[in-house]
Amino acid sequence: MNIKIRRYLAIFLTCTATLALYGTAAYRVEQARMQPRSEYASCNLEHCIPHNATLNALR
To answer: Which residues contact 55 (CB under 8 A, 6 or more apart)?
Structure first.
């Protein structure tokens, strides 16, 4: 293999790896977005912590 083919191969592999990482991240974000958001509070025994409350409401 000459230098030109190696360079093109390296560019191709770099682009493929970058697209694979981007695709994986986009898939994970989409999966996280599609999960139901029915849990608006975490309750552990007597302590319930709301996830959508302001800091003043937590005092």
So the answer is: none
